[in-house]
Design a protein that fits this description.
Helix content is 39%, strand content 14%. The protein has 430 residues and is an alpha+beta fold. The strands form five sheets. Strands 4-3-5-14-8 form a five-stranded mixed beta sheet. The longest helix is centred in the last third of the chain and has 21 residues.
Length: 430
């Protein structure tokens, strides 16, 4: 039996009952008939950027609490925190710096895990049962120095989203070059359909152009770009082609750009108010909640007139790590292993609309996953580039300013070059 979850603000306390409470002795009888006092453990779980999945995680954590009580006679209280993507990183850094360390916290596998590992914040979980279950290609994305340091949640293959009904009705196919994309935009405009969904209220949304540009161009016409930038030998001037697609999107999009965030954007896109959205399939849950019959696909974003640059981004984004200084490592490990439980995790991952990451996952991927996988299977993909977090944050703000004409393309280039050099300086001091 799962006891009630008590929710106060952004915190949910999960506990479970595996038997009957003895009011005189304060002990609880477990499934083995033992009357030993139950051990009580409180876990702090920091799930930055995952607030849209609060219901799914809270229910799953309640299942875990019940399991832990029945199997180990441990009453687990899980205090979860769900800050939004805009400020999650800063809040987590503050927590770690002040010693208010969560037992488990969410990190971006490519952009954050290496830095947090180097800083000594992550527990080595190589010998945990979940480690051996990971699909080989996924396992290496959460492995550093031959150590598995995180549980992968979102395994992604993304570029932009498109409305399949609109495309099919007009006989359109995902374009492979910038010129072809211009033709698609023209046909949409001719049919009085807004080509692109725009929602720049949250800076992380325009920031999505950055990994797509760095990945697509940096793995085709500008190979070695990231390495050059890390050595202070490169410049975003090498990627100036990216402003072609950015300008095309910005000049053919929906209105009220700075009033629309991710939630409103998902609702509008699912309602058919635009044909395409430079956004990822991590929004699948929000899209289908807004319109359960919405049929959308995933395709690579054209960046130039070279089809070689039109590639799918493949990555593990959100992952869960255990704090190396955590006080409840045994129960934290139990929870992280339960995240990839052979039976229960199938329903969790399918409910979150995430891709399979475990060899034990048997659920059928969603249609948009299969769309993206078709490109990956043809070799038209790249591994999500490792870009300093400061550069990603700055790019979102700079591209907001670029849209509102407060910055030129050259201004954005200079700004990102400076931010990357500053990030290198900080990294080299460590």
């Amino acid at each position: 039996m799962i006891l009630a979850m008590l929710m106060v603000g952004s915190t949910v306390a999960c506990s479970s009952g595996g038997g009957t409470k003895d009011n005189n002795s304060g002990s609880t009888s477990n499934q083995n008939g033992s009357n030993a006092p139950a051990k009580k453990v409180e876990l702090k779980v920091f799930l930055g950027g995952l607030d849209r999945f609060r219901d799914q995680f809270d229910k799953y954590f309640a299942q875990f609490a019940e399991k832990e009580k029945k199997e180990k006679n441990i009453v687990v209280t899980i205090n979860t925190e769900y800050p939004g993507s805009e400020n999650a990183t800063q809040i987590l850094k503050t927590r770690l710096a002040t010693g208010d360390v969560p037992d488990i916290f969410a990190l971006h596998a490519v952009n954050d895990v290496p830095d947090y590992y180097k800083a000594g914040f992550l527990e080595d979980m190589t010998n945990q049962p979940f480690s051996g279950k990971l699909i080989d290609g996924i396992r290496k994305l959460v492995t550093i120095d031959n150590k598995v340091v995180a549980v992968p949640l979102e395994s992604l293959a993304w570029g932009y989203l498109y409305n399949k009904k609109i495309f099919n009705d007009l006989g359109l196919k995902p374009p492979t070059t910038l010129t072809e994309m211009k033709a698609v935009v023209q046909k949409l405009n001719d049919n009085k359909i807004t080509p692109f969904m725009l929602g720049y209220k949250e800076s992380w949304i325009p920031q999505l152009f950055l990994p797509l540009a760095v990945g697509g161009l940096g793995n085709s016409t500008q190979k070695g770009f990231v390495d050059r930038m890390n050595k202070d030998q490169g410049s975003f001037a090498e990627l100036k082609d990216m402003f072609g697609i950015i300008d095309l999107v910005n000049s053919n999009g929906t209105g009220r750009v700075f009033e629309v965030g991710n939630d409103d954007g998902a609702a509008d896109f699912a309602a058919g108010k635009a044909a395409m959205w430079v956004q990822g399939p991590w929004d699948a849950d929000s899209l289908l909640k807004a319109n359960s019959s919405f049929d959308f696909g995933v395709a690579p974003l054209p960046l130039s007139d070279s089809p070689a640059s039109t590639l799918i981004n493949v990555s593990v984004s959100t992952s869960l790590a255990m704090a190396s200084s955590g006080k409840n490592k045994e129960v934290s490990a139990d929870l992280l292993n339960f995240i990839l439980d052979d039976q229960a995790s199938n329903a969790l991952y399918q409910g979150l609309k995430f891709n399979p990451v475990s060899k034990a996952h048997t659920f059928k991927p969603y249609p948009w996953v299969e769309d993206a996988s078709a490109y990956v299977n043809k070799g038209q993909s790249y591994q999500d580039p490792q870009i300093p977090a400061a550069v990603k944050d700055e790019s979102g703000k700079a591209l907001q300013a670029y849209f509102s004409k407060k910055m030129t393309a050259d201004d954005v280039i200079k700004d990102l070059d400076k931010t990357w050099k500053n990030a290198n300086a900080v990294a080299n001091k460590k």
